[in-house]
Design goal:
Chain lengths: 434, 434
């Protein structure tokens, strides 16, 4: 069953890869209109989910995420409209080279193919991800939260059908509904090219361990702020406070504060006063505990993503020690240095092996919307393909298109081999998508 | 033991990532000089391997690949020198955006980290891969063919030590020697970022099935040439002959010839005459067998990489049928159309889901050297990160570098949120590697 859905998505992906920009934008417009036209039906479905969730006594935070009302629908429509205004990421010539007279090589962006996305309970994620897939010419299998099953069904039907009416192939998107469906999907490396799991660390790791399909995701967000000996203490206070407290439940919030031993006595009491006002629980290493009153941090604390108003603090002996701690215990997500010393900033940003390395600003900026990517598929702590916040571009790859006039390799081999010219060309591939 | 080697490589990779272009090129020069200065020792080690291989009665083709004489060493040195002349792939600003006044975001290329490369019996591959790793700032673990153990040890020692003397960190490259070492390496996803297996299909698949580390490689090279109804038959003859016969033992050689039914009667007898002259075994579908005398092709033939003077032939009903066959049975490597019809070429190149799609030229062009990439790490049939021939650029990724003046996210949230400017900047990251 899932195999048939995936096979159909694979067939559809060949078509979606070759759609024109106009057709894709037209389809996105049709999706936006259909969501508005059929909002009653969608909101009714959401009410069913909300009632069931209340009966199941879901936590208020989860109920809030599950809710899909007119305001959320308008936000989703606005998201689609901003996506329409973004340039088409497909069909861009990345490089052009003349190999020899009349033999020209072009590297041109194209979709990845079929995406498998597993997302959390927010139904708006379904709208966003399917719109991103459509714009980037990918087919997509989606699995949302169990609690949102009725909302997701309603949304998926509206989006799929509106896009198909506008010219997309049947089956370009499909909804999976159970954990078993996801397990089945992870085995279908023949049809699915990239899995994007969004959710708990445990779930992302589970996915990574159970598929041959490449996985784009991040397992942990253990972010650091390092207050250097040359820090402006005012900036350091603001950044350390914002990175922890502005929204502690997310992956780009700071989990460990590193403080240079030379300024720890000045800095730590001040930041503790700020944290105390909002009730941040502090866990310090031995030297930190000698300066401020706090709990004791264990080795396990350095590896923990609290996602809460809890912070571990360590005093380090200079920049190298800080870099070492981050590269040992961090998760490669986002790490910041506060310093007025440009050499220290340069060294930190070169040596810290994370997707996002910041100087004098909060770790909380690490986000596709704030980066101006338009929309975000997720944040990647992978070391290949895409790193940090992933927007449309992360859903693309490229093809090499070689255009000749009957050229054969035999002419470029042996004692009378013709040489290659390898001349850079400054033009776009003449053989583009329709 | 392997874990310690990998851990050391990981530590070294932090340093190699931040080396200047000058230092890396100087180190490559030192490696080239050391290889020449110590060529006697290397060639003596190779003699030991050759003697053992002869005693083990290795096939002449393998002996030829194993041989590392003065000529091969000169080629390797020339390869290093051409690598020195290539631009540094690290530290390039890919994009620059002002998020707000004084808050600037840069996306800058950086190395992937630690590579694990398993290569075939040619010792020259060791020189090439370690030089590519050095130029791209990656640390690398290498495992060569068992037959070449003495040559590889000698080469690895010379290369490692010359580079370390020139400023690279100890352990930036290391040689693994046994299959057990490779198995151990595949489990070390904590230290190794990318595995590049070169070798038999069975081996590449084995690697993919036995690691959580991303794998860059290609399992099969099942390449097609489609002779369209609008083909120039002279070009079609040349291309079909070259794609199969110019060097049949390699992954970019054609394995299946697809011929439009409307020109099959004209074309097939001519191409058969050409193939017969060099003894190509032909296996055709039913319709092909009605036109020319050949063996019968089974469904399994469409999935087989012969790597030999054997060719399967199928008559198809037009372009869509050809595309369908390729997307069903192909391996996503390299597929060519021969046609004078630009619309057919456009459609073929858009719909065939392969890393390399060619128009009126031989599949044999699919190669990093011919593409002008300078050097090739391998050919990827992955759908993410890098596709087709992979050169230096495939060994890089990027970091997001955000530079502020004490900026915090709280100012951009809530009722009085400041807006982001998201203005494209036309400048390079001012905080570059040393």
């Amino acid at each position: 069953m899932i195999e048939q859905i995936a096979q159909k998505a694979r067939q559809a992906s060949v078509i979606t890869a070759s759609l024109s920009t106009d057709l894709k934008n037209h389809a996105l417009q049709a999706v936006a209109q259909a969501l508005q036209a059929q909002q009653d039906q969608i909101i009714t479905a959401n009410h069913e989910d909300l009632e069931q969730a209340q009966a199941d006594k879901l936590a208020p935070a989860l109920l809030k995420r599950l809710k899909f009302d007119q305001a959320k629908l308008q936000d989703a429509v606005a998201g689609i409209e901003s996506l329409i205004s973004l340039p088409d990421p497909i069909g861009t010539t990345i490089s052009a080279t003349e190999l020899d007279q009349g033999l020209e090589l072009y590297r041109v962006t194209c979709p990845i193919g079929v995406l498998g996305v597993v997302f959390e309970s927010r139904p708006d994620a379904l709208v966003q991800i399917s719109a991103l897939a459509l714009k980037s010419g990918n087919a997509v299998l989606l699995k949302g939260g169990r609690e949102a099953v009725n909302t997701n069904r309603a949304l998926a039907e509206v989006i799929h059908d509106a896009a198909v009416t506008a010219g997309l192939p049947q089956g370009w998107m499909a909804l999976l509904e159970t954990r078993q469906d996801v397990t089945a999907m992870l085995a279908l490396d023949e049809y699915i090219d990239l899995v994007i799991p969004r959710g708990s660390n445990a779930f992302v790791k589970h996915v990574m361990d159970n598929t041959r399909i490449p996985v784009l995701g991040h397992a942990d967000g253990i972010c650091h702020v390092f207050v250097d000996t040359n820090a402006d203490l005012e900036k350091a206070l603001n950044i350390a406070f914002d990175s922890k407290c502005q929204y502690p439940a997310v992956c780009n919030a700071m989990e460990t504060l590193l403080v240079d031993a030379r300024i720890a006595k000045t800095f730590l009491p001040k930041i503790k006063a700020a944290y105390d006002q909002v009730g941040v629980e502090l866990r310090g290493d031995q030297r930190t505990q000698e300066i401020i009153d706090c709990k004791s941090a264990s080795d396990q604390d350095w590896r923990t993503e609290y996602n809460d108003l809890i912070l571990s603090i360590k005093i380090v002996d200079g920049l190298d020690d800080a870099v070492d701690h981050i590269n040992t215990y961090g998760s490669g997500h986002t790490d910041a240095i506060v310093t007025e010393n440009e050499d220290h900033a340069r060294k930190f940003m070169a040596l810290v092996d994370s997707g996002n390395v910041f100087w004098n600003c909060s770790t909380r900026y690490s986000d596709g919307f704030r980066y101006g990517l338009g929309a975000e598929v997720g944040i990647s702590t992978n070391k290949i393909h895409a790193r940090g916040p992933v927007g449309l571009e992360g859903l693309t790859i490229y093809k090499w298109k070689l255009i000749g006039q009957g050229h054969i390799v035999a002419d470029y081999a042996g004692p009378n081999a013709k040489p290659f010219t390898h001349k850079k060309l400054n033009k776009n591939c003449p053989i583009d998508n329709p």
